[in-house]
Amino acid sequence: MYNLVEHGIYTKEKPEEDQEKYKEFMARIEAGEKIEADDWMPDEYRQTLIKLISMHGISEIMGALPEKEWVPKAPTLKRKLGIMAKVQDEMGHGQLLLRVAEDLMAPYGKDRGDVMEDLLKGDLKFHNVFHMPTKTWADAGVIGWLVDGAAIISQTNMLDASYGPYQRALQRICAEEVFHAQHGEAIIMALAEGTEEQRKMLQDAVNRWWPALLMFFGPASAETTGSSKQEVTTKYRIRKSSNEELRQAFLDKYLPRVFALGLSVPDETVHYDKEQERWVYQQPDWNEFKNIINNKGPRSQERLRLREIAFKNNEWVREALAQPAIS
Amino acid sequence: MTAIETPEQAKQDRTYHEALVDLVYQFADDDFIISFRGSEWLGLAPHIEEDVAFSSITQNTMGHAFLFYQLLEELGEGDANSLAHDRRPSERKNAVYFEKKNGQGTYLEEPYYDWALTVVRQYLYETFKKVKLEAAAKSSYQPLAATAQKILMEQTYHLAHWKMWVTQLQHATQEAKVRIQSRVEEAWKEFGDALELGSKAIDMKKLGLLCGEDELKQKWLQEVEQHVASVPTTPLEKCLGNGRAGEHTEDLKQAINTLSEVYQSDREAVW
Amino acid sequence: MADKEKINTFYKKYEVFSKKNDKSPVQHQFSLLAPNAEMALNIAQENFMRRENVIDVWVVPRNEIRSMTSEERKQWTKRLDNKDYRTTKGYGYLRKKWREKEQGMLDEKEILSWKEVKKK
């Protein structure tokens, strides 16, 4: 689950690029070739990838936490198994993506430990949706259905990404997302077709998640929050579409399904404009968005605390095995 | 002992049926509670790649509990989900050591979970499970024997995984050695009831459902002595109580409250 | 830019390979971090092959693999397209010749069908 949001790590004066190499590099990009980890690449490309992929990866790891809140509580044996497998996959996606990011950082001597430290220091941000609370079992359903739906839209958009290792990780990830989509649908379908209480629980969850879902794709333009990396990622053929195009694609796919279940969204103005061929909706509070991704969201500190304890409290284990085992 | 092929046949002899049900509850409840504790770890393990592998083991183990609850369902005990979610602590037959919390805090807040406890417990558990399943694979109750044989195929990996962890940490830093050793010594005071078979132990052996307690214990000890660097010389105790007799700790209450929270909110609803 | 990898670290890089069945070749899957080969092998299958059949897994320390460098890939993998003599493509004209003589050509399909020889 990912969205690229500008943040301030690894900022460095852009060195004079070797013009010859740069031209050759761009020719490869434009010819649709894949760039590999040890190929020459302009600093801007490497920095953009590091930011994008480390944020994507750490968001998967942090994203496991809100859903995990419901793992031990899932209401049946089958649901317990399903949600465990799903959250396990999120950890697995984090693993794939962090491996890709770590290899890009290797020339700077940074490794997994540094990524975790960056997260805990607040230098590495994680996706806005994972700062939100989960109040009921329906939240587990809405995360699986709509949050994952949004993630699938943005991840499939990068399936042709120019960076080979990222593209290959995304192939693996998107193949598993099909299971995730159906896992989420199964939970919400049972609730939508369930008791009055269950339907209320589901509607309440949709209402609470709606602003976060709109924010998922980031602001439409740089002016909204002061910065956006959209152009760089399209220039280097990492992704194809803009934030707004992705959001529209999400609304296209999911709003009709929301309505078909007899659910609503908390925006009376939302409608499809046939002439403009786009969904019209009320803008979420983009200042709130900025706060959230700066770790000032409703559950930001609690989630970081969980990760911090998991990382630091287990340090002795990693230290113990850091050297070759004596057999 | 003649082989009993179906639940209907098993129900015809009351002594047989009671001993069988008791035994299957032990298998089901042990797997269920240990996989619940495993599920609390998800996302919090010392290493991401380990987290993923550990979760597979937890899922497999919960799958095993599911199979045993289904056996109970066939034996007329009620449906698998209510057996897992809707039984009071005093009705549960899992050994007490397996219900012990993973450490300080909860999985939602301040989870100071102890990897040494988990490694030691999982290793001792999987070793015990292997021995008990091997005995069950020869059980007179054919559906149980078939289930045990099936589970043993998958369980081999679980044991290999935790054997690796216990071995590596015992040969690592001084801190790791001390942490593992102190959890081993603790386990010696609490593991006792795991190796017992409860009030129907004699019937179980007589009716060919399982081997006797002595054999179970001896085989387990033999295995453990090969991999635990320094096995305590004191006898095994059951300081926390006897789970096979339905005695349990506060930790099991916490577990049941958590795992059945949503289920209990509406037992009739379809989830 | 050379990678700066720490020597005494839990985070050592292993490349993971697996084999799906008796007839398939070993295939690269992904990489993982582990403190030693023992652990890398133990956790590899659940990390990358949870949903597929596997009959064998290999783990190889990344730094033990001498792969082509970026430059070598560029220089050593390009060949002139004039090697028909090495493939069946260069001998396609034989098909017509044999047809004139009312015989079939010994192509790949034909030759691989010789697996079974008639029992005498």
Automatic annotation (TrEMBL), chain A:
A GO cellular component annotation in the UniProt record: cytosol
Pfam families: PaaA_PaaC
InterPro entries (alphabetical): Aromatic_CoA_ox/epox, Ferritin-like, Ferritin-like_SF, PaaA, PaaA_PaaC
Gene3D superfamilies found in the cross-reference section: 1.20.1260.10
GO terms of biological process kind: phenylacetate catabolic process
Entry GO MF terms: phenylacetyl-CoA 1,2-epoxidase activity
PANTHER family: 1,2-PHENYLACETYL-COA EPOXIDASE, SUBUNIT A, PHENYLACETIC ACID DEGRADATION PROTEIN PAA
Name used for this protein in its record: Ring-1,2-phenylacetyl-CoA epoxidase subunit PaaA
Organism: Alteribacillus iranensis
TrEMBL record, chain B:
InterPro entries listed in its UniProt record: Aromatic_CoA_ox/epox, Ferritin-like, Ferritin-like_SF, PaaA_PaaC, PaaC
Gene Ontology CC: cytosol
Gene Ontology process terms (BP): phenylacetate catabolic process
Pfam (any one): PaaA_PaaC
Lineage: superkingdom: Bacteria
PANTHER family, A to Z: 1,2-PHENYLACETYL-COA EPOXIDASE, SUBUNIT C (PTHR30458:SF0), PHENYLACETIC ACID DEGRADATION PROTEIN PAA (PTHR30458)
Protein name from the UniProt record: Ring-1,2-phenylacetyl-CoA epoxidase subunit PaaC
Organism of origin: Alteribacillus iranensis
From TrEMBL, chain C:
InterPro entries from the UniProt entry: PaaB, PaaB_sf
Pfam families found in the cross-reference section: PaaB (PF06243)
Protein's name in the database: Ring-1,2-phenylacetyl-CoA epoxidase subunit PaaB
